[in-house]
Amino acid sequence: MQQWARFAILGAMFVTAYLLILAWQKDYGHSTTSNQPAPAAVVESHEVSADLPNSQATATSTDVPQANIATQQVTDATAPVNQQLISVQTDLYHLWINPKGGDIVRIELLNHDKDKNSDQPFVMLESDAKRTYVAQSGLIGLNGPDSSRQGRPQYEVEKTAYTLADAKD
């Protein structure tokens, strides 16, 4: 075999080994976020807990002044620990709405299973200790209801569970 072919193969092996080490470090290397506390236990009930991350308070938007974000964080910290969610069930889905701000915090699609051999419904949105996927509502503009110093509005409802009968629109 010619000398240049050996060097080419050897060089390709070194480049491959280097890229393999970089990929290993990216997947299993020491992370800089190791100082963070362990995640809280999974909340099985459908109540919003104050220890869950509030995406509204952590959002950084150029439209909202920094002073409003700071006052909102203080307001959210003094909020009650548990809030009763509003449950809405139809023949297609079951969803839960947080009365503080009107965000949809959980949706279960009743006609779609979680797995192929599962009887559990597919969960599209959820807010628990593992992940936070919510459909936020509200207007954050200068005169929007979410821009007040008291924080997000607290909506009041007559009851906390609503059910729409099958085949009713």
TrEMBL record:
<dbReference type="GO" id="GO:0015031">
    <property type="term" value="P:protein transport"/>
</dbReference>
<dbReference type="Pfam" id="PF14849">
    <property type="entry name" value="YidC_periplas"/>
</dbReference>
<feature type="domain" description="Membrane insertase YidC N-terminal">
    <location>
        <begin position="86"/>
        <end position="168"/>
    </location>
</feature>
<keyword id="KW-0472">Membrane</keyword>
<dbReference type="InterPro" id="IPR028053">
    <property type="entry name" value="Membr_insert_YidC_N"/>
</dbReference>
<dbReference type="InterPro" id="IPR038221">
    <property type="entry name" value="YidC_periplasmic_sf"/>
</dbReference>
<feature type="region of interest" description="Disordered">
    <location>
        <begin position="141"/>
        <end position="169"/>
    </location>
</feature>
<keyword id="KW-0143">Chaperone</keyword>
<keyword id="KW-0813">Transport</keyword>
<keyword id="KW-1133">Transmembrane helix</keyword>
<feature type="transmembrane region" description="Helical">
    <location>
        <begin position="7"/>
        <end position="24"/>
    </location>
</feature>
<keyword id="KW-1003">Cell membrane</keyword>
<keyword id="KW-0812">Transmembrane</keyword>
<protein>
    <recommendedName>
        <fullName>Membrane protein insertase YidC</fullName>
    </recommendedName>
</protein>
<comment type="similarity">
    <text>Belongs to the OXA1/ALB3/YidC family. Type 1 subfamily.</text>
</comment>
<dbReference type="GO" id="GO:0005886">
    <property type="term" value="C:plasma membrane"/>
</dbReference>
<keyword id="KW-0653">Protein transport</keyword>
